[in-house]
Every structure is written in C-alpha cells, then in structure tokens.
Request: fold
Amino acid sequence: MPVFRLAKNSTEFPDPKLAEDDGLLAVGGDLSVKRLIWAYYNGIFPWYSKGDPILWWCPKERFIIRPSEIHVSHSMKKYMRKHSIEAIMNRDFADTMHRCRLKREFNEGTWITDEMEQAYYELYKMGSAASIEAYTDGELAGGLYGVIIGRCFFGESMFSDKENGSKIALISLARYLEQKNFLMIDCQLHTDHLEGMGGVRISYDEYKSLIYEGMK
Reply:
C-alpha cells in the first residue's frame, strides 16, 4: 500500500486505518498548529529524523496509561518518602522540551529538531501542550512534555537529570491529570518501563473513543 503524500494547502489526513502495518500513514505537509491539532485528534503524530521529510504515524495498536491506574512500585514509594519531592506544571516548557532533545541527541539521536521545538512551543502558547518538571530535594530531577486535546494527554518525550527524575514527573503528571478527570496518557509506543508503570495496550478504535469522550 503506498504511503500518502500530504498536500501543503490542506490539513486533512487520510483515514488513519489505512496506515501501514508499522504505523506509517503519510509523508510531507508541515507542522502548523492547525495540522498538529487535527493530527493528534485522530491519533496521528509526527516522528522523523533531521533532514528527512515529515513522517506521520498512526499505530493500529495503542499504548496508554490511565491516570488513575499509574503504578508506583514499592521501591519508588520508599524513594519518594526519603526525599523532598515537588512537581511543577509548565515551569519552562521550552527548556523542558530542549532538555528532552539534548538527552536523546547525546545518546541515541532525536526526532526533536529546531522545527519541532518551534511548532510545539506554538501549541504550548495556545494551551494545547504542557510540561511538568520534577524536583528532588530542591534540584531539578527530570521532566516531560506532551500535547493536550480535551481530557487526553499525548506524551511526547521525557528526561532525567537525577535518579528517578522522569518516573517522578510521570507519577506527578498522572496524579494531576486524575484530579482533572483526564482519561488517558498516550505513550505512543510500548516500552517495558512504561508497562511497569501501568501502561496497557488498547485497539485504535478504543483509543479513538477515549479521545471523543475526552472532548465532551
């Protein structure tokens, strides 16, 4: 099945169910705010390397954490009791996203390009993206950022500067979102680490129904 090429003068995407088996749906287009919001509303996200055309993905099986079902291990509870823990929403969105980029550039490479940083900061300025930063004993330990559509949070990336930093950020985010009656944290792709924190696989149809419900 050929991959769809997006028109520059339209923000529409093909039917997400036409994605390849690996989740690749389309190529091209841009990272305008309007296109990004429409993409996330349909479970589509950009993921590509610097110098390549924009690739848009929509996996047929999704991996999410329901905020009320975040799993905090015994060892993690013990660690959080031993230290002074604080989490701040939107301390500095641009800085958090850039720290996520730097961690990946140094290790395995990153999809967070200059263009991505600018695009998601525009989402943040209009209230459609957010970050959370975790502090341990008064020092920045880690953080993450993502997109917000209704009562659904679409996680994009995270970083740790200190032990358990990203875990504390994710736990804190889940607790905050539970208070706000959010329905899910979209993890995009499965990892054993996130499964251990409560992540579950669901079908695209169930995933899309959560997005619809979150818009009510």
